[in-house]
Structures are given as structure tokens and as C-alpha cells.
Amino acid sequence: GIALRLDEFESFFFPLTERIKLRYPFYAHVHISIYGLQFEFPEHHFLRDLESALKNLAEIRPRISDFSEGRRDPKKQRDELRDLIAREKFISRSIISAAFSLVEAFLSGLFFTAHHTKSIGSLNCDDEFLRYAGTKESAPLRDRIDQIVRFVSHGQATGNDKPFDSLIDFGKLYRDAIHHTTPFGRKDVEAGGRLNALYKINGGIALQCSLFSLDTVLTLSRWVYGDPDTTAIGEGCCKLKRNVLNLLPDAEGSENV
To answer: How far is CA 29 from CA 6, 15, 38, 72, 108, in A?
Structure first.
């Protein structure tokens, strides 16, 4: 079927309502289907990935707890327990990957929107921010977050404030351990550090990373759009944050088994 970016769709067909253009990002694609107009954008996919992975984690953790809390004998069902722990670690890596992909997509979307429309949300972009958006979109994650935060908060906050510092200082090590695995040292980690982080990943760490990622998107959304629920991305993040908070009290981690 036909798939066009929002502005291209309006040029070819008809203007979309302001409510629609606020709800979906500028870079979203419109699909014309038998069900009507369907809107697709990267964050939608990563939010769905998170939703599915969190559901799987919620299902598997009580089964692991049966062993750690003595309701089942790990010696008699060793193979089953080993499989459960492997599945939890796989799900946890998936959660961390999706959570950081969500943040990366959202940041890139803000820069792309600024570059093409000279504004993001209700904020008009100054020349300094536009230059950054057009030339530094692939800068280190910490730098991009700091640049966005300073601009949308009108200088009232920086990337060193929460939740952004937690995302970087706590979560990025685990993201890098998954996507840039190496026994070598790097400027921010000693030799073997990423391997140790990879082996340590469990449900509790994944939930913390997802919470910091969701809070990062939601905090930026409030500055840019006001009520996050007015956008599909903000609404999805609010829903998933409730799911994460419901799971966090039980997030002891499978390595304790």
C-alpha cells in the first residue's frame, strides 16, 4: 500500500488535523489501508518490543522464584531451572536493547524535526540548536541528551540531572555490553568490564534500564509537548512505566538462585 511521511501525505492528498499532527511525530509515515489511516514510526516498534518483553519477564520471574524461595528443588529440576534463567537473561537483554533504541529514536526524531521544521513541539529552534541538529545527530549519546535537555528546558536542566544521568551512568554500560561486546578496555570501562556487565544482566537491571529510558523520553516530552498523553509516544511510555513499576518490587535478579 501507499506509505508517505506526514508532510508528503498532506501534499499528495489532504491536510491532517492539528490533533493528528501533534499526536504523531513529524517523521511518521502514513499508510492507507482498508482499516483507514495507519501511522508508523520507530518509537512505536520499540514500545511494542518493550511491551512484549516485559510481559514475558512478568511470566517467567515467578517460575524462577519458585526455585529461589524453596517451593521447588533446583537439584531435581536443574535443566528446567537452567532454561528459565537463560530465557530471563535473553528477555532482559531484549528489554535493555529496546529501551535504549527507544531513546535513540526519540532523540534522532527531535533533531530531524528541528532540522526540517525549525521547531519541536511549541519551541522555535535557535541557530545554535539547528546547527547541532543538522551536523551532530550521531554525536555520543551523552552529548546529544545534554544538548536537547539544555534547549528544551530553557537552560534550567542539563544531561547531568536525573533521569538522564541515571540512564548514562547506570544503563549505558549494559547497553554497550550487549551491542559493543569486547574484552578490551575502553575509556569509560576497564578491560573485561563489558564482559562482566554482560554476564550480570538480569531482570532487575533490565527493569531499571527501561525505567530510566522511559523517564528520559517522558521528561523531554513534558518540556516539548506539555502533557505526554497528547502524543502517541508519550502515552505509550506512560503505560509501560506503570508496567515496569509493578514489576520492580520483585526484581531481585536470577543470579541469586
So the answer is: 6, 14, 8, 50, 16
- CB-CB neighbours of 40 under 10 Å: 12
Angle at which helix 78-117 crosses helix 127-135, to 10 degrees, equals: 130
- Three-state helix/strand/coil letters over 217-234: HHHHHHHHHCCHHHCHHH
**Cell matching residue 212:** 530510566
Which DSSP symbol is given to 248?
G
Give the whole-angstrom CA distance, residue 189 versus residue 228: 35
Give this prediction's pTM. Answer: 0.92
pLDDT digits (tens, 9 = 90+) for 116-163: 999 999 899 999 999 999 998 889 999 999 999 999 999 999 999 999
Short-list 188, 214, 203, CA closest to 65 = 203
